[in-house]
TrEMBL record:
Pfam family, one: Plug
Location in or out of the cell: Cell outer membrane
Record bears the keyword Nucleotidyltransferase: no
Outer membrane protein beta-barrel domain sequence ranges: 374-786
InterPro entries, alphabetized: Beta-barrel_TonB_sf, CarboxyPept-like_regulatory, OMP_b-brl_3, Plug_dom, Plug_dom_sf
Source species of the chain: Petrimonas mucosa
Name under which the protein is recorded: Putative TonB-dependent receptor exported protein
Gene3D superfamilies, alphabetized: Carboxypeptidase-like, regulatory domain, TonB-dependent receptor, beta-barrel domain, TonB-dependent receptor, plug domain
Main localization, broad class: membrane
One Gene Ontology cellular component: cell outer membrane
Length: 825
């Protein structure tokens, strides 16, 4: 009897344990775009007592939820801010071990409270193994903002008062559009991004750990701007216009439409920039071993110009397995500068003159990309074949005239001009394959070939009074260049994710062959170089809690100098301060380590990142005093592989929504940089840098939004140069009309500060120079945006396409710690 009773007890205990161990799982997504809804609230109640919850938990970052329950009938209730509450009846039968209720779709909604109508939003930031994603389409301010305005609120990204963009406190990064590093943006990112409406953007990805599938880019990260790829049945669009008190103006338009198997998205913009006169004071003290001398220059400069850009994507989906995309984009911009400069030299060289200069720069890009994507029965298995062609003009010209000349090399009334015809063409072919081996493991492999053909031709002339005032060619200033480059690469990556842990490992191999033909007045040389690089990468993540993630990453990158750095063309518009590139530059290698912690929920988004990087042969701006065309004491600015850099930094981001009508965001960083010349131990620089940017937004009744922004930026550390700290601030007000289809916005930048002053100090062997920029800041901007259309269903875009991010692009200043230029205007 006792044995029978014991058996019954054990059987009952086994049944109870078994009954309690029934797992119920599913996935929560948005009905509109099938995107997962992370950190949504799920409550469970018994069907007999529906008002009393017996379980409460949250979905993970992928919208997946799981819990354990006994057999019975239950009601699952799903809550997500900005979505209609949804209930789902779930029956758990005896003997079951797993109940999968599948994919739950939630519809968007708005809540009206008394006279205040607030449309709630999803968490704006999503964290993944190797990147952070800012959801632009869920930002309520995107309707009247530009993409540049949007970047001010993206984690780890800051935009200063001069519209220069920084990532993690550094200019060492790249900006891409839909994964493509088109020169449409890289040549003048601030102007292009100011002209793009934020409502055409879906996400902004901050890729802190570029994996093996990315070209071996020697930068600290990537900002990838993803346009709204949803093309719905029917049409939708927007049109906008803006103007400011500086005399600038512009307009933009966005359109998406779909009929049957064809889809089209496109956006275009025109802008005109006119900045009031800026003042510059330059002083250089020459000391031993140079002859003692003082050079003082005071000048005034006016910049103006405009550009036109467009980007269009056409999709054709013959069936569910095949997809074809064609995209065409172009940016064409011209900027002009008129300046007047007075020069006085005293000491070893006594002279003075007044110089009037007018110059113009033509830059842009034309890009044509074709993609074919093949999907398979296995989910997320993809084969993509792509081709891209890009043409990049980079022409410039200037003309100068001397007057009030005393004891100078050029006589009174002397005139000179220069025309530089530069640019290049690029062809790229690429094949990518992605295979999710299991629900936890995936692999990716790919092959790529790039052919680049760059050239630079200069026409340098002077007005010869002894030849009937004819423009005569100046062969002594000849500096021409032909540059071809072929890159063959392959990569393989492995990803694993199980539960709270995930990682990505990758290895990329690149073989580079290039030929440089350097033609100057003194030499005619052809240089051939070949090198091979193995580039490893690794990223790990661990989910500490439902809304908290810890990440660690390492990557090694190389950076090949672009045409801007290689171009030997000498810009001697200011004969005392000349600038030129270096065709003998080698690629640089950078090693990056970072540790990141993020906590993202509907009310509070927080991210902190600790990073360390070092570069042994950094491409660095080099400034020295030397002779030029028979004149002594000329400042030369060029580039060389002479930097040995290391830096450590701490970056933080906070976005807090204490109540539906208030949102506060904060971006900041502090770091220490140490730069040492590999050629001269006496040339070094080190110090702390820091910046902070904050914003406060109020969403008021009657569709009114008020915003205030402010930023403080400390000294910038370079090898020979330091820059003073400065600050800026702005205010904006927006009002919506016609059921939120028409938005009117007024923005004021530095309304109480007419100018901003920036000091730049540079030291070198036998000289020290100081420069003060006094730039106009106070401006008011009015913008108008109207949205139209009616959409129903979506069509896909290819998930992989060509990305060329291996080149250092154009710029005029070195980046902090890695020798790449500031990506600002």
């Amino acid at each position: 009897m006792k044995e029978t009773l014991l058996s019954l007890i054990l059987l009952l205990a086994t049944f109870v344990v078994y009954a309690e161990d029934v797992t119920v799982k599913g996935k929560l997504v948005s009905a509109s775009d099938k995107q997962p809804l992370p950190y949504a609230t799920v409550s469970v109640a018994s069907k007999t007592i529906p008002d009393q919850a017996i379980r409460k938990f949250a979905t993970d970052e992928s919208g997946i939820f799981s819990t354990t329950l006994k057999a019975g009938d239950y009601i699952f209730t799903f809550h997500f801010v900005g979505m209609n509450i949804i209930n789902r009846n779930v029956e758990i039968k005896d003997g079951e071990s797993l109940v999968n209720i599948g994919q739950i779709e939630m519809l968007e909604s708005s809540t009206e409270l008394a006279e205040i109508r607030v449309t709630a939003q999803r968490p704006l930031v999503k964290v993944e193994i190797d990147k952070l994603t800012y959801s632009a389409k869920d930002d309520p301010e995107s309707s009247t903002s530009s993409v540049l305005d949007l970047l001010r609120k993206v984690p780890l990204v800051t935009v200063d008062g001069e519209d220069n963009i920084q990532l993690k406190g550094s200019s060492s990064f790249k900006i891409y559009l839909n994964g493509k590093p088109s020169n449409m943006i890289s040549n003048n990112p601030s102007q292009v991004l100011k002209s793009m409406p934020a409502n055409s953007i879906k996400d902004v990805e901050v890729i802190t750990d570029p994996g093996a599938r990315y070209d071996a880019e020697g930068v600290g990260g990537i900002i990838n701007i993803i346009t709204d790829k949803r093309v719905d049945e029917g049409y939708s669009g927007s049109a906008g216009a803006n103007g400011n008190t500086f005399g600038g103006y512009g307009g933009n338009a966005y359109l998406s439409l779909k009929y049957g198997k064809f889809g089209l998205t496109g956006n275009g913009a025109y802008f005109y920039h006119d900045r009031p006169e800026a003042e510059t004071t330059f002083t250089r003290e020459d000391i031993a071993p140079n002859p003692v001398n003082q050079l003082i220059q005071e000048g005034r400069t006016n910049n103006y110009g405009g550009g036109l850009l467009y980007n269009m994507q056409l999709s054709y989906e013959p069936d569910t397995l095949n997809l074809f995309n064609v995209s065409v984009g172009q940016f064409d911009g011209r900027f002009h500068t008129d300046s007047e400069q007075g020069t006085l030299s005293r000491g070893a060289r006594n002279y003075s003159y007044l110089l009037n200069n007018n110059s113009s720069n033509h830059f842009g890009a034309f890009t044509l990309t074709t993609d074919y994507q093949r999907t398979f029965k296995k989910k997320d298995e993809l084969l993509t074949i792509s081709y891209r062609f890009e043409r990049n003009p980079g022409d410039s010209k200037y003309e100068t005239e001397y007057s009030e000349v005393e004891d100078y090399f050029y006589s009174d009334g002397y005139r000179m001009r220069s025309i530089n015809d530069a640019g290049g063409k690029e062809h790229t072919g690429q094949v990518d394959y992605v295979n999710p081996l299991t629900s936890k493991q995936s692999i990716e492999v790919g092959l790529k070939y790039i052919y680049r053909d760059n050239s630079s031709r200069g026409d340098n002339r002077f007005l010869d009074p002894e030849n009937g005032n004819a423009w005569m060619e100046d062969l002594s200033r000849k500096n021409d260049l032909d540059h071809t480059q072929q890159i063959m690469s392959g990569y393989a990556g492995y990803g694993f994710k199980a539960g709270k842990f995930g990682f990505k490992l990758g290895l990329r191999g690149e073989n580079t062959a290039q030929k440089i033909h350097f033609m100057s007045s003194k030499v005619d040389t052809v240089v051939n170089t070949d090198f091979f690089d193995l580039v490893p990468s690794a990223a790990f993540s661990y989910q500490v809690g439902m809304t908290r993630t810890l990440r660690w990453g390492y990557n090694m990158r190389i950076s090949r100098p672009g045409i801007w750095y290689l171009n030997p063309y000498i810009n001697d518009a200011d004969p005392n301060n000349i600038q030129y590139g270096n065709p003998n530059l080698d690629a640089e290698q950078t090693h990056n380590f970072n540790l990141n912690f993020g906590s993202f929920s509907q009310k509070v988004n927080f991210n902190a990142s600790l990073s360390y990087s070092f570069t042994r042969n950094a491409i660095t701006s080099r400034v020295f005093i030397d002779e030029y065309n028979g004149r002594e004491g000329v400042t030369h600015t060029t580039y060389d592989n002479i930097g040995r850099n290391q830096s450590v930094g701490l970056d933080g981001y906070l976005s807090w929504t204490p109540m539906p009508i208030v949102r506060i965001n904060l971006n900041g960083s502090v770091g220490y940089t140490d730069i040492q010349s590999t050629e001269d131990a006496n040339i070094s620089n080190s110090g702390f840098t820091g910046l902070v940017y904050s914003g406060l937004t109020f969403t008021l009744p009657k569709d009114v939004r008020l915003t205030a922004n402010a930023g403080l930026f400390s000294s910038n550390i370079q090898l020979q140069t330091t820059q003073s700290a400065y600050y800026f601030y702005s205010f904006s007000a927006m009002k919506s009309f016609l059921n939120k289809k028409l938005d009117l916005s007024l923005n004021a930048t530095a309304p109480f500060s007419k100018y901003i002053n920036i000091d730049v100090n540079t030291t070198g062997d036998g000289f020290e120079q100081k420069m003060n920029h006094r730039n106009p800041m106070r401006t008011f901007r009015l913008s108008l945006t109207y949205r139209f259309g009616d959409l129903k269903s979506s069509v896909r875009k290819v998930k992989r396409t060509i990305t060329n991010e291996d080149l250092l692009q154009g710029g005029s200043q070195e980046g902090t710690g890695a020798g790449v230029p500031v990506t600002g205007s």
